[in-house]
Amino acid sequence: MLLKSWSSENITEAGCDEAGRGCLAGPVFAAAVILPPGFENELLNDSKQVTKKNRDLLRVIIEKEALAWAVGEVSSEEIDEINILNASFLAMHRAIDQLNLRPELLLIDGNRFKKYNNTPHHCIIKGDGKYLSIAAASILAKTYRDEYMERIHAEFPVYGWNTNMGYPTLKHKLAIQQYGSCIHHRKTFNAAIQTKLELFE
Prior knowledge:
By secondary structure, the chain is of the alpha/beta class. It has a single domain, classed as Ribonuclease H-like superfamily/Ribonuclease H (Nucleotidyltransferase, domain 5), CATH 3.30.420.10. 41% of the residues lie in helices and 15% in strands. It has seven helices and five strands, in the order ββαβααββαααα. It has a five-stranded mixed beta sheet with strand order 3-2-1-4-5. Helix 1 packs across helix 4 and helix 6 packs across helix 7. The longest helix is centred in the C-terminal third of the chain and has 22 residues.
């Protein structure tokens, strides 16, 4: 089933989504995308439902054909200070700040959002699998974050970030237990993981 736009009216809508919210390490990334009227692409879907090859292909198409797009990030240090939910909102705000076209409506993946200035917004649960602009934002957020994690993997290869992208896989959690955390880990998440692992010792 092809994804759709929120409205058939002449409204400039920006889809917003984040990547990395459930990770133990690295920033949270978010993207905002304004697609042109009538935009269609059969490959475009929630980034989790798209292969890496097709995500990379879609990123090129989105960056070329979107009326406006931008990516924002919030560091692991900031996440520890303001919590991951607020960090996700902040990453979206930073992405929207960079758009060279002002959206009249924001479509947000998820069920909560912190209002951006006076711009109306709609929260849509699993919106990245329903609406084109949110799906496009999910592709950009995912690909930009994955690139970042692959880069810092070279500094700390023991955690396997080139494959787990900072998510709490068993290998990642055991590596934290064996080697401790590093500067890229979120301390608020790491403490909980360490406690759980100690229960099994």
